[in-house]
Amino acid sequence: MALIILAHPNFDASIANKTIIEELNNSNLNLEIRDIHALYPTYKIDIKAEQEALLRHQTIVFQCPFYWLNLPAILKLYFDEVFEYQFAYGSKGDKLKGKNFILSLTTGAQKEEYKITGKHHRTIYEFTKNIEQTAYYAQMNYIDPIYLHSMSTHGGPGQPPLPEDELKARAKEHTKNIVSLLATLQHQKAN
Ligand SMILES: Cc1cc2nc3c(=O)[nH]c(=O)nc-3n(C[C@H](O)[C@H](O)[C@H](O)COP(=O)(O)O)c2cc1C
């Protein structure tokens, strides 16, 4: 039903993304989950295998933590190599046309830090504009990204870290949003 591209370079230590993936696995949705860091620990991406996976699905969720106000390197490399000429763009590059593109990000920082007067001065929406354009360039249907803030185990400015139970509970709530979005898209497709 949907493809989940998980991009987390340190999944063993993850709380948020690990919980999200566990919850997605427990959902009754028919998902193909590809952990690209585990598949390609030396960053040698099997481009053909990834393109074939993309072709199998109408909806693709890119699930990752926000690193240095950007995508983790493995996901940037994935776009560089898998979204290649005459596949994702170019005169014959329409293989992803019309597919749903969903970015699901976890951040360490709190929501309040992503505003003009906040620590990071810009909204996540602004930081992810280039990813939105990547989707449009590949003729994909860009769906509003879903963000899960305050997932740091170090806490934030003037804010102690949330207890692990709470981090997990928040990640479970976030997964419900993903599941409901996927169900809505599936319903739209059927009608
Ligand atoms: C290398 C690195 C860079 C990070 N950069 C940011 C950042 O720019 N903004 C932010 O909000 N959090 C940042 N974080 C925090 C992670 O986004 C946060 O720990 C992660 O989303 C939590 O998910 P996890 O439990 O699955 O690892 C960074 C973490 C690491 C390790």
UniProtKB/TrEMBL annotation:
SUPFAM superfamilies assigned: Flavoproteins
Domain of life of the source: Bacteria
Keyword Metal-binding found: no
Keywords, comma-separated and alphabetical: Oxidoreductase
Pfam families registered for this protein in UniProt: Flavodoxin_2
Residues covered by the Flavodoxin-like fold domain: 3-154
Gene Ontology terms, MF aspect: electron transfer activity; FMN binding; NAD(P)H dehydrogenase (quinone) activity
Entry protein name: Flavodoxin family protein
Species of the source: Chitinophaga silvisoli
